[in-house]
């Protein structure tokens, strides 16, 4: 009976402790490494700044009982304001913290095992940290084996997840493209490799992986959630045309465009695509190129073509911005561009009517 009571007491004590949230240690980094070795834990560094909104969000998450129960069990937890005491960290840690918050999981020998960049809900964040707890799914282990060409297809998926945790977008694309090339046709449309399409981003528009996704849209997207489908469309397609039509990509301003004029390549890509709104994006591409080339005759034609499709608020705002860039004239009495040209005013009226019909 006494033993049962003791067990209950110890259990209640552990719950009470966890309700205090994550225990932030007030010790030096070197002392934390020693403590981690003694307690068979890892060190977790939270690199933050005082002005960082996502950092403040995570601090609130760490006050919960769930956070305390997980992190206190596995980590010696340290916080570093990277504009203050964080400056004293060794350079090999500081160079890894270029965005806030950044979390480094460090072994007692001082080597970085895993990295998580950014804020998220506690459950998602814990899942990312769990990858770093396990050697075989940690960034350091997978990176070393990737360099040696030792990763299996399954391990390359783990590596993509680890790189995503670390917000290493360029490396994610590199590994995803390499894995894609090594897959069979059956594997390319398998749910096991769905991450290859979920991780498509802005810079992936010209990859064979994205072209395949567009061509096999009807086979791949039923396995994806709506948010992922919308993100891929926004990142790899809409965002490019948005940048042309809002003046971020011009003959003078590149804004990260891979080619001086990407539109012909996009046109070839879309002509072979199986997406439901292919014709709308082809028309948007034509309008983008007309604006880019300052071809006002083509612009008027392509603008009217766009208005044959439904115009939602997002499309309306972009088209209105485009109109003012192409047809607007500076006014001494106003900082905004005013459309005085007859053709420009006519297109503006048509746009307003199309939007009002919605």
Describe the model.
By secondary structure, this protein is α+β, with helices and mostly antiparallel strands. The chain folds into two domains: 2-133, Glutaredoxin, CATH 3.40.30; 200-357, no CATH class. The protein has helices spanning 2-18, 29-38, 53-61, 65-74, 91-94, 122-133, 139-147, 153-165, 169-181, 185-188, 195-198, 208-215, 217-220, 226-245, 263-271, 278-292, 296-306, 313-327, 342-357, and strands at residues 42-48, 75-81, 102-106, 112-117, 328-331, 334-339. The strands form two sheets. Strands 2-1-3-4 form a four-stranded mixed beta sheet. Strands 5-6 form a two-stranded antiparallel ribbon. A hairpin with a 5-residue loop joins strand 3 and strand 4 (112-117). Helix 8 (153-165) packs antiparallel against helix 9 (169-181) and helix 18 (313-327) packs antiparallel against helix 19. The longest helix has 20 residues, at 226-245. The radius of gyration is 26 Å and the shape is elongated. The termini are far apart.
Overall residue-averaged pLDDT value:
91
Low-confidence runs: 5-11
Helix fraction by DSSP (H/I, runs of at least 4): 55-70%
Give me the strand/helix succession.
HHEHHEHEEHHHHHHHHHHHHHEEH
Concise overview:
With 358 residues, this protein is of the alpha+beta class. Helices cover 57% and strands 10% of the residues. It folds into two domains: 2-133, 3-Layer(aba) Sandwich (Glutaredoxin), CATH 3.40.30.10; 200-357, no CATH class.
């Amino acid at each position: 009976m006494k033993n049962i009571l003791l067990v209950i007491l110890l259990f209640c004590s552990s719950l009470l402790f966890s309700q205090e949230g994550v225990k932030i240690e007030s010790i030096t980094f070197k002392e934390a490494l020693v403590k981690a070795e003694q307690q068979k834990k890892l060190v977790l560094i939270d690199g933050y700044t005082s002005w960082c909104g996502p950092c403040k969000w995570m601090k609130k998450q760490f006050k919960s009982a769930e956070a305390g129960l997980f992190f206190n069990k596995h980590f010696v937890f340290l916080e570093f304001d990277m504009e203050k005491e964080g400056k004293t960290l060794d350079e090999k840690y500081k160079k890894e913290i270029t965005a806030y918050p950044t979390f480094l999981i460090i072994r007692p020998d001082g080597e970085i095992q895993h990295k998580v960049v950014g804020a998220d809900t506690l459950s998602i964040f814990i899942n990312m940290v769990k990858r770093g707890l396990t050697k075989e799914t940690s960034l350091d282990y997978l990176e070393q084996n990737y360099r040696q060409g030792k990763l299996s297809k399954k391990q390359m998926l783990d590596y993509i997840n680890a790189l995503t945790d670390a917000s290493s977008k360029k490396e994610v694309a590199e590994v995803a493209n390499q894995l894609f090339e090594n897959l069979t046709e059956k594997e390319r449309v398998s749910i096991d490799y769905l991450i290859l399409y979920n991780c498509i981003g802005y810079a992936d528009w010209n990859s064979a992986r994205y072209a395949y996704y567009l061509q096999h849209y009807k086979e791949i997207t039923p396995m994806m959630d709506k948010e992922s489908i919308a993100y891929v469309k926004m990142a790899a397609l809409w965002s490019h045309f948005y940048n042309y039509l809002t003046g971020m990509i011009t003959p003078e301003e590149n804004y990260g465009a891979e080619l001086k004029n990407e539109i012909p390549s996009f046109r070839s890509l879309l002509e072979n695509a199986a997406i439901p709104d292919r014709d709308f994006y082809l028309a948007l591409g034509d309008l983008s190129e007309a604006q880019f080339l300052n071809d006002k005759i083509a612009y008027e034609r392509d603008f009217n073509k766009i208005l044959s499709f439904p115009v939602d608020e997002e499309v309306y705002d972009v088209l209105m911005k485009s109109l003012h860039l192409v047809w607007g004239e500076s006014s001494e009495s106003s900082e905004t561009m005013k459309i005085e040209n007859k053709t420009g005013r006519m297109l503006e009226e048509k746009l307003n009517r199309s939007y009002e019909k919605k």
